[in-house]
Every structure is written in C-alpha cells, then in structure tokens.
Amino acid sequence: MTALDSLAAAAKHLDATDPLARFRDRFLAAPDVVSYLDGNSLGRPPRGTDAAVAEFIRQDWGERLIRGWTDSWLDWPRTLGDRIGQLALGAAAGQVVVADSTTVLLYKLARAALAARPGRREIVLDTDNFPTDRYVLEGIAAELGLRLRWVRTDPAAGITAEQVAGAVGPDTALLVFSHAAYRSGYVADAQAITRLAHEAGALILWDLCHSAGVLPVLLDDWGVDLAVGCTYKYLNGGPGSPAFAYVNSRHHGALRQPIQGWLGRAEPFEMGPGYVPAAGIQRFVSGTPPILGMVPLRGALDLLAEAGLPAVRAKSLRLTGFVLDFADAQLSDHGVTVASPREPDRRGGHITLCRNDFREIADRLWARGVIPDFRAPDGIRVGLAPLSTSFTEVLAGLTALRDLVGESV
C-alpha cells in the first residue's frame, strides 16, 4: 500500500466514523466544485436558506409590511446576538448585538474604549493582524493623535502573552488582537493576554472572525472587555451577513459609542432632541438593523446548536490533523512548508501551506474545481468547515495540489 493509499483509507475511515457526517448533506453543494477548501472565508449555504428568505419576503415583509418592526424585527439584533453569545462565544445574555459590518463595529468599540481611558496615548496591535483591524486603528490613531505600538509577529504563528507583557505599560489604552490569526490559524492565549491588559489598566478588543463557530470561546470567563466578529464564515450567514459585537456588561454604563444613531437612543421613537444612550447593549446599535441579512443566519445557527461546539471543535482538529499528515507525507518533498501551528491547543480551523509559486497554483486549482484561497506572499490556506466538509473531499483537493506541485518541480 502506498502512502497515498494509506491516506485514502484514513479519509474513508474518518468519514465512516464521523459523528457529524449527517450534516454534510444539509448544505448546498456547487456542481462544478470538487473540493471546497474555503469555508473559513465563506461558509456554504444550508439547505432551506432559499426557502426561508422567500418565506420572509412573502410573509414577514410582504404581508406584515412596516408592522414587522413592532412584531419582532427591532428585537432581532439583541435576540440573535444572545443566541450567538450562547452558542459560540461563552457570553451571557444581554452582551452581544448583531449589526453593521465587522469593520464598523471594530471602529465603534475601539473609539468607545479609547474614550474610556483618557490621558492614555497608546494602542497596542500586531503587525500580522487582519488588514481591516490595522487600517481602522491607523485611522483612529491619526484622528485622535495617538501612538500605535506594533508587536512584530511571525506570520506562521501569532501574538503571544510574552510579547504582550513586553509591550504594555502605563500609557496603554487599548489592545486589539485576533483570537485566531487569519493567516496561520494560530490561536492566541486570550485569557492570559486579557489578564495582562487589565494588569496594565488597559482595555482589550478581540477579533473573533476566525474563531466564532469553530473554536471554544469563553468571553465571560476570560474577562474580555470587547469583541467583534463576522457571521459569514463558520456561522454560514451568507456573503455580507451582519457582524456581531460583544460588550461585557460591566462596561455598559461607561462606554459611549461614537456613531450615535437613532436606534441606539433611549426611546428612539420619541424623535426628541439630543442623544440619550439606550440601556445595555442596545446603545451600541446605530441605524436600522439589516433584517434581511439576518434571515439566513437564524437558520444556520440551528445547525450549530444541533451539532454543539465541542463536537465541531473535535472534528476541526481531526480535519486539520489530516491536512498536516498529508502535507508531511505528500507535499514536503516538493518544497511545500506548513505555516500553521502543529500543537492542537494553538491550531485554529485552517492550515496554511507555502511555496513560492502558490499564487499561480491557486489559480490552477480553482480551474480544476478545487477552491482554497491564496494569501500573499506565498500561502494557500486550506479552510475546513467541520459541518460541511468531508475527509474524502479534503483528500481530493490536496491530491490535486500534490499533482500540481509535482508538475511544477
């Protein structure tokens, strides 16, 4: 039996014994796609999403019309936020709201946090955080005349507690990091880093875009101040589905968000003069909620609730472990390196493989119906959504990659 035969047998066995196998057929599959390895960027649509959207348009919108707002729509940002908090964030009710995009929510929470630390002039962030995080903070620093303290992180790893300990000080107002690094998938020690931030008297804001729905997250237990994340990756909310914001309840009375829209005001329908913030998490809403964009997310969360996050995380580790085994056995001799952690506790939901010609090879994979994504300068990111991805599908995609790198040697 060849090494590839052994991997094929392992994939078959893993699929046959997969406790979450029943979920794979509950997602729509593109007929021209052999292997979808980008579920960490955009999750597949659950079956029934089209019917749910059509029903909403026909009944909730079409029949109830504007009455839908007072029926329930105005509550959706909070009720859906509570559900995400319960299922994916380790957050008690009343601390998560669904609204806006990740970028807008990041801006809101960062500005609110900085206003709560007057006199402190420094924001700590890392060089390999997701671009929008860096760009937003660069803009805020320019607006407010603050300093950015950059922690240089390895693109094959991520931010560590040791690095944070050496970066924070009495002038630190806010720290902003990703819980799971977008490039490598490295999982930061959020609890330890949060503790270091608080010891320095600063607030911390976590980006959970590559964590929510695939990694264990315990925001309340960790003592996190603030967090943001998207819903179109592992939460399967669809392209452009609205993001979520977490604000620990201990900060609700002190933080004042900077985009003072009417639906974040106490008694918004009074239409009165002056902005008086609403109580609780509602104060972090600005404008009209993106109700139509929330419809697919409501159904997708039912799948996560049925599967349970512990089972999702367990399968995620098996999937990423399988990619590592394949890379070691079939790709390393072709100059492919692994730019992701091997330790399970530090490994997120995707694996990044690197070679200097992977930009071209990624395009050729797409032409063959194998869909990963490319991250400059030389990384192919193998994104593995546990509910919708089989091991044999991963094997097919990686085998195509092996064939292409073999041809290119």
Automatic annotation (TrEMBL):
This is Kynureninase. Pfam families: KYNU_C (PF22580). Pyridoxal 5'-phosphate binds at T102, T103, F130, P131, T132, D133, D207, H210, Y232, W262, T288. It catalyses: L-kynurenine + H2O = anthranilate + L-alanine + H(+); 3-hydroxy-L-kynurenine + H2O = 3-hydroxyanthranilate + L-alanine + H(+). It comes from Pseudonocardia hispaniensis. Homodimer. The gene is kynU. It comes from the Bacteria. InterPro entries: Kynureninase, PyrdxlP-dep_Trfase, PyrdxlP-dep_Trfase_major, PyrdxlP-dep_Trfase_small. PANTHER family: KYNURENINASE. Keywords: Hydrolase, Pyridine nucleotide biosynthesis, Pyridoxal phosphate. It is an enzyme of class 3 (hydrolase). The modification N6-(pyridoxal phosphate)lysine is found at K233. Pathway: Amino-acid degradation; L-kynurenine degradation; L-alanine and anthranilate from L-kynurenine: step 1/1; Cofactor biosynthesis; NAD(+) biosynthesis; quinolinate from L-kynurenine: step 2/3. The keyword Hydrolase applies.
